[in-house]
Hints:
The complex is a heterotrimer of chains A (about 375), B (about 110) and C (about 110).
Chain A: E1 9-12, H1 16-27, E2 32-35, H2 45-48, E3 52-53, H3 63-79, E4 91-95, H4 98-113, E5 119-122, H5 123-129, E6 139-143, E7 147-148, H6 151-164, E8 168-170, E9 175-181, E10 184-190, E11 193-196, E12 199-202, H7 208-213, E13 222-231, E14 241-244, E15 247-251, E16 257-260, H8 276-289, E17 297-308, E18 315-318, E19 325-329, H9 335-350, H10 373-380
Parallel strand pairs in A: 1-2, 1-12, 2-8, 4-14, 12-19
Antiparallel strand pairs in A: 3-7, 4-6, 5-6, 9-10, 10-11, 13-16, 13-17, 14-15, 15-16, 18-19
Helix pairs in contact in A: 1-6, 1-9, 3-9
Chain B: E1 8-9, E2 13-14, E3 20-25, E4 28-33, H1 38-44, E5 51-53, E6 58-60, E7 73-76, E8 79-83, E9 94-97
Parallel strand pairs in B: 3-9
Antiparallel strand pairs in B: 1-2, 3-4, 5-6, 7-8, 7-9
Chain C: E1 5-7, E2 12-13, H1 14-24, H2 29-36, H3 49-60, E3 79-80, H4 100-109
Antiparallel strand pairs in C: 1-2
Helix pairs in contact in C: 1-3
Amino acid sequence: MNSLRNHEVVVIGGGVMGCTAAYFLACEGRDVALVERAAQVGTEASGRNAGGIRQNKRHPAELPMAMASVKLWQFFRDELRGPFEYEQNGNIALATSEEEVRALEAEAVRLQGQGLDVRHVRGADLKELCPNLSDTVLAANYCPTDGFANPILAIRFIAQCARERGVTIYLETQVTGLAMRGGRITAVQTNQGEVATEAVVNTTGPWANEIAAMVGGRLPFVPRPTQLAVTLPMPPVLRQWISGDMVYVRPTQAGNLLVGGGGPRDPMGFARENTHSRIHRFAVNGARIFPPLKRTSMVRAWAGILAISPDGLAIIDRMPGVENMVFATGCSGTGFCTGPGTGKTLAEMIQGRVPTIPIDGLRLSRFPADLDFEAAYQRQSQPEP
Amino acid sequence: MHAGRVQQHPILGPLPDVPLVTFTFNGQPVQGRDGESIAAALWAAGIRVIRYAGRRREPRGLYCGIGHCYECRVTVNGIPNLRACMETVRANLAVEGGPDRGVEADGGTTHEG
Amino acid sequence: MGGVTLCRCELVTDEDIKAAIDRWNVHSMNEVKLITRAGKGACQGRCCFSLVRALVAYVLGVDPGTLLPPRVRLPVRPVPVVLFGRPGTTTGDTISMIAPLQDSSRERRT
């Protein structure tokens, strides 16, 4: 365990955004501390998600971030030889009704217009692409460069790369306060001592408001748990990530299938529980779009906490009222994929540069300052049966 | 067919009379005593290998025998991953070993929280 | 994949575990499970846990009692997907895995 010293930049939160931000800052020669309160990096959403690295179905404001992030994931895998099982077998978004088919057709045109290789597929082509889809699937949008990785290994690998570049990672270190003078943070206070610093990055995901409160701020997002489940191993029946009918399914190298899917009205909070009704939906809806699921069993379920923003898009910006703090949160369940792009963007902002990846639609200013999103979300949320 | 069965036990006494039924294991007919565990019937029939595990296709069969280890897992009438040591024999059950991962799976890691 | 098989379900050997500890600087049973897959299989670590813990304690040079078991999650035993949503069941019903075939046989006879 390192004993604390002063650093030029402190990154708070050791998930995918924090680890990549620290890495890219260190690549530019900055002296960086990464502060993580758990005993290891990537113990929360970044290590619990299904590992999707996806450009398909992206909102226009977020597609550049997703496409840039795919390139960065490739960099970590190929240039840095990262052993985190990143496969680009494709993402298939399914339509099970005529209305969904029409929506997919329009979405394919929109995504292609932004430069994404995505194809609208049906009939024999769809059958050849993914032979085991059910007959309830009428058509699909297929992005061949999409894929998935093992997030547990990915985060740990990126942290190792960051360390090799000179980042000091402080584990079991919780931020308890931020000392400010004249609108600038001068030091980060933790349960292990104080770190004097010149700049701070807040990448604590759904806990971002714990940190924001320390500078008198509040960001418009709510924490929300989401569940996943995994099957026992079976012979290979699926190559791609498929999604439809409120669930997604994807294969793993070990032969299991991961099944997940959120609910837009799920209650907010930090309770990482699994429920029978959600596992039930994974099984029933999953088998409905992908019948081979009936040949296996659900062996385990788990959960993670997401940061849900008012429009489902990430919020990446400077902290209002603080000269030397940037943050990213609100990734609403897609943050693993966009992690590297977000981390690189945060590093560029700390360095005083205009971000390379366009984040025009992802700034905090798109929301009214007096928005009480928590109240609005509470009103429309419904507990599960 | 009775190979391996205890016909007379010092404490439990003689093996009671129970109807024999036929079920299939991987397509082959096997006789068992109605109501005994599938694993017992397979064992009595001299079948030791229930499935083949992983890339090296390691032969697996009865291991703990008490419903703990899932080594004896079988698919019965289409329901997968049932424990042969816990499921009982009935006439005309269709039993298959497994399912198991394919030979392509190299034991890579998945991730769970 | 040489060595002695410790986790039968996921085919994890002692060599795999030692290599993972070395490569990823592992210090807990939960980390061993996440990274090597030991304990992620059908029996969810019931058979391998004490073996794996003994090895990890030996490699790390700590008392095995200090290595806490990984988290336990639903479902308690693997549940075949086909048992969810069967006619006559609703979400929230307990799915008994003690003898699901018995239940399914009974259902088919009615």
